[in-house]
Design brief:
The complex is a heterodimer.
Chain A: H1 6-15, E1 20-23, E2 37-40, E3 47-51, E4 56-60, H2 65-74, E5 77-78, H3 87-90, H4 98-103, H5 111-114, H6 117-120, E6 121-127, E7 133-137, H7 149-153, E8 162-169, E9 171-172, E10 176-183, H8 187-198, E11 204-211, E12 216-223, H9 225-239, E13 244-247, H10 248-259, E14 270-275, H11 281-287, E15 294-298, E16 303-308, H12 313-322, E17 326-331, H13 347-360
Parallel strand pairs in A: 1-2
Antiparallel strand pairs in A: 3-4, 4-8, 5-9, 6-7, 6-8, 10-12, 10-13, 11-12, 11-15, 14-16, 14-17, 15-16
Chain B: H1 8-12, H2 14-24, E1 30-31, H3 34-38, E2 54-56, H4 61-74, E3 78-81, E4 98-101, E5 108-112, E6 117-121, H5 126-133, E7 138-139, H6 152-158, H7 165-168, E8 175-181, E9 187-191, H8 202-206, E10 215-222, E11 224-225, E12 230-237, H9 240-252, E13 259-264, H10 265-275, E14 284-291, H11 294-309, E15 315-318, H12 322-333, H13 335-342, E16 344-347, H14 357-371, E17 375-380, E18 385-392, H15 399-416, H16 435-438, H17 441-454, H18 468-476
Parallel strand pairs in B: 2-4, 3-4
Antiparallel strand pairs in B: 1-2, 5-6, 6-10, 7-11, 8-9, 8-10, 12-14, 12-15, 13-14, 13-17, 16-18, 17-18
Classes of the chains: A alpha+beta, B alpha+beta.
């Protein structure tokens, strides 16, 4: 089903008696294939408002990402949270939609500086499980009127309602970008350098370490050309050691690789996404020697991508929990069959989440069970 | 302004409620005498006052949980309170409620520079969070103007903003996790010293829920390295339209100032009379501040001034030193004091799309004539957060009501042009009865269902946010 409007979607939901698999572009789904009729948002597409001078864009949930990115680029702007392209890693095709990006709270390397997708989401419209059309937030940057359901909808993967329209804060694309690159370090050294960089006033907008091959640390700065040139040298001086410089497109390519977890795309096997305190990353990776064949530490170490050809569920979850973090099975693979996909939560929070799902979607129509195992 | 009906049954059980509280808290943490309770009868929205049934000042999360279990068991409403600086009446008591103040819970639990967070008890004041880390070169970014007094607990409840949001975001963008106690007395930890908690974004909905979903007792806050420096430029224009076009031009040019403040003529004059900052007598004034090293600041300011020159400013004054910066900010920072000296005032904080600025200022001027009340505008122009200050005389019968009526008209205008009722102060009781200007019944229903999940009996800060007739069925349940 592909409703052409919000009103038509509401009508479908009101008359529904079975579950739906809610779908934007279908490029970034994780978890088990759902049961039910596919409900596509692609009919509710198009940019309805774009004010570059107010840094605001409003679009139908089914608007292709390509359309959004093209419109922004024409004005020298962009979505600052750096949307990952998951098609390579997850082996999906087609084109991503802005609603799918929001539903997955999809956020790339720049999250460490500017925040996640949810931090740039100003407003939503959605149809809940009773068929009611609900709006929350708006199109202004500061808005504390009523509860913030905008955040709740971001990352809910369609389980609370079907997004029909999203309103986003956009930012200027920088005049220049530069990446400092050091090779031949282990993750411990990389993490230490990332902590120095992120603790400096030089506005580092990307800090990643690739623990594969000889090991490589990358630190990015963006902004006005003169400013980037100054900060590049200031940060180099603060870090010491040998740092190569990549600028412009070669720098951008380094970050697309991190953003899309590209090094794991062509290799078969489970991929885990672990959220933890950045300084715990080296210890977790060391504890998983023999389980994780390679690791990419993004967000200064706060996000670990682990490539585990043998599955590694028990070991990865235990190591993440020991460090106070949590792990999601981002891509299934041999040895991880039948494992829970999403991070387990404590019972009190599970019951709140269940309560919220029961109240927004009382008949369990939208992606039932998706985030619950 | 109405408050919920007071429960006679709760009032009748006053002694047993106080006794139960005293059984779980130290003596000095329970206030039940008339003089002591007067300190809690209002917050910074002083037009409304009501002493509570009792006030408690716990020192630990466990004590908070004990209080809430008692209140839950005895069916007593609870109003959480940070420092009591809410301009929206968020901490206004009812006669049958327990005020739960977190002011004594003000410790820094942990500071971690490698991971760039600070873990604090929620009663700690906003400015003292920065105070705890600034010697080491860090700061906590959200900076509401009450930051000397306001508590992190209140910042989280109201999702407080400040002058530097354009670059650094508001509270929700700088909050990593909380320890929270539910109305039933259950202690929850949501998020922590890492970036994203698993599952639904409960932290996102708790932040800004005005103390209606739980009592936050601890928080993990993101801290940032202090910029090398900051300097403003002051730009005067002879029309609001041109000033608005200049703001838009700066933003479109790809420069992201840390603050863009806007003042209109009545505000400029009042500030100048009060603070003698040397402001030009013009229609509109912008203060644009940028950050970085001295050379980075020079580069950004020269680009901003080039844009400003294209709009024929009547004044263009670049700060070249700390002293000059202070002087430029002096007038703006004394705006509220300057107004207070002229008269009583009501400060609104509706937000509008930046593009609607000239239209909104024109309409506010018309309303000012219509109601016969003066208005001065000071405005976070980068993010569209208005601050119209309506002057009135509290001693003149009917003036407060007239002022409230005019305030409502301005906020309706904000919504009409695509904005919202409140950008940083919160709804509280002040804007509660305007909620249906912005929201359809289904929109409010969706929000109230969230409260149903966290606090099914609607005991936590129940008379706020939603119009009383809209929440009536739930509160009675």
């Amino acid at each position: 089903m592909k409703p052409a409007s919000e009103a038509e979607l509401a009508e479908i939901v009101r008359g529904a008696n079975g579950p739906f698999v809610v779908r934007g572009g279908g490029t970034r789904g994780i978890g088990r294939a759902g049961v039910g009729e596919v409900l596509e948002t692609g009919g509710m597409a198009g940019i309805s408002l774009y004010e570059p001078g107010a840094l605001t864009l409003v679009a139908g949930a089914g608007t292709p990402m390509v359309e959004v990115e093209t419109a922004l680029a024409a004005e020298g702007q962009r979505l600052a949270f750096e949307v990952p392209d998951m098609r390579g890693l997850l082996g999906t095709g087609g084109g991503s939609t802005i609603g799918g990006v929001v539903a997955a709270n999809a956020s790339g390397p720049r999250r460490v500086q500017v925040g996640a997708c949810r931090d740039h989401l100003l407003g939503v419209r959605f149809v809940d499980g009773t068929g009611a059309v609900v709006k929350n937030g708006g199109r202004v940057m500061k808005n504390v009127t009523g509860y913030d359901l905008v955040k709740l909808m971001a990352g809910a993967r369609g389980t609370l309602g079907v997004l029909t329209e999203v309103s986003l804060k956009v930012l200027p694309a920088p005049e220049a970008e530069v990446t400092l690159v050091a090779r031949g370090h282990d993750l411990a050294a990389g993490a230490a350098a990332m902590a120095v960089a992120l603790g400096s006033p030089f506005e580092v907008s990307g800090a990643a370490h690739l623990a594969l091959g000889e090991g490589e640390t990358r630190l990015r700065m963006e902004g006005l050309a003169a400013s980037v040139a100054y900060r590049r040298e200031a940060l180099r001086a603060r870090l010491g050691g040998d740092w190569d410089v990549a600028e412009g497109e070669p720098s951008a390519a380094l970050w697309r690789e991190v953003r899309d977890v590209a090094p794991f795309a062509a290799r078969a096997g489970a991929v885990w996404r672990v959220m933890l305190k950045p300084s715990d990353a080296p210890g977790v990776v060391a504890a998983l020697a023999g389980v994780a064949e390679a690791a990419i530490a993004d967000w200064g170490g706060g996000l670990l991508w682990l490539f585990c050809p043998g599955g590694g569920a028990q070991a990865v979850r235990a190591a993440a929990a020991l460090a106070g973090g949590h792990a999601t099975l981002w891509r299934q693979g041999p040895g991880a069959e039948g494992e829970a996909i999403f991070s387990p939560e404590v019972p009190a929070l599970v019951s709140l989440a269940k309560g919220l799902r029961a109240t927004f979607d009382p008949r369990g129509l939208f992606n039932p069970g998706l985030m619950e195992g | 302004m109405d408050m919920p009906m007071v429960s006679a049954s709760v009032l009748g059980r006053r002694d047993s409620i106080l006794a139960a509280l005293r059984a779980v808290l130290p003596d000095d943490a329970v206030i039940g005498d008339e003089a002591g309770l007067r300190a809690y009868e209002c917050d910074a929205l002083t037009a409304y006052r009501c002493p509570p049934l009792a006030a408690v000042l716990p020192r630990t999360t466990d004590e908070v949980a004990a209080v809430l279990r008692i209140a839950h068991g005895m069916g007593v409403p609870v109003v959480p309170r940070g420092s009591g600086t809410s301009l929206a009446g968020g901490a206004l008591p009812t006669a049958d409620c327990i005020i739960l103040g977190v002011a004594r819970m003000n410790a820094v639990i942990e500071t971690d520079y490698d991971n760039r967070y600070v873990h604090v008890q929620s009663g700690r004041t906003n400015l003292s969070v920065t105070g705890a880390v600034e010697a080491d070169g860090f700061f906590y970014a959200p900076d509401p103007s009450s930051q000397l007094a306001c508590a992190i607990a209140g910042n989280i409840a109201m999702n407080s903003g400040g002058a530097h949001c354009l670059k650094y975001g508001v509270t929700t963008n700088n909050l990593l996790g909380v320890t929270m106690v539910t109305m039933a007395g259950e202690i929850l930890t949501i998020g922590g010293p890492y970036m994203d908690a698993p599952g639904l974004d409960l932290l996102g909905v708790i932040c800004g829920s005005e103390g209606q979903l739980g009592v936050v007792t601890e928080a993990w806050l993101r801290i940032l390295p202090k910029p090398e420096g900051a300097r403003p430029v002051l730009i005067g224009f002879d029309s609001n339209e041109v000033a608005g076009a200049c703001v838009s031009g700066i933003i479109k040019a790809g420069i992201l100032p840390v603050a863009i403040e806007f003042m209109d003529r009545p505000c400029i004059r009042a500030c100048e009379d009060f603070a003698h900052a040397g402001y030009p007598d013009c229609e509109a004034l912008l203060i644009v501040e940028v950050e970085g090293s001295p050379a980075e600041i020079d580069d950004q300011l020269s680009r901003i001034m080039a844009i400003a020159r294209a709009h024929n400013p009547v004044e263009l004054r670049e700060s070249r030193s700390e002293d000059e910066s202070k002087k430029i900010w002096l007038g703006r920072k004394s705006a509220f004091g300057a107004m207070g000296q002229i008269n009583d005032y009501m400060c609104l904080d509706g937000t509008i799309p930046v593009s609607a600025l000239p239209l909104v200022l024109r309409r506010i001027k018309e309303l000012s004539g219509q109601f016969g009340l003066d208005v001065a505008n000071v405005f976070h122009a980068g993010d569209g957060n208005m601050h119209p200050l309506i002057l009135f005389d509290a001693n003149k019968p009917g003036d407060l009501e007239l002022c409230e009526e005019m305030g409502a008209a301005i906020l309706k205008l904000c919504v009409e042009v695509g904005g919202c009722l409140t950008g940083e102060h919160g709804v509280g009781v002040e804007k509660r009865d305007l909620m249906d200007v912005q929201f359809a019944p289904e929109d409010m229903e969706a929000q109230m269902r969230v409260k149903d999940v966290f606090d099914p009996q609607w005991l936590l800060n129940p008379g706020k946010v939603f119009p009383l007739r809209v929440s009536a069925g739930r509160r009675a349940a």
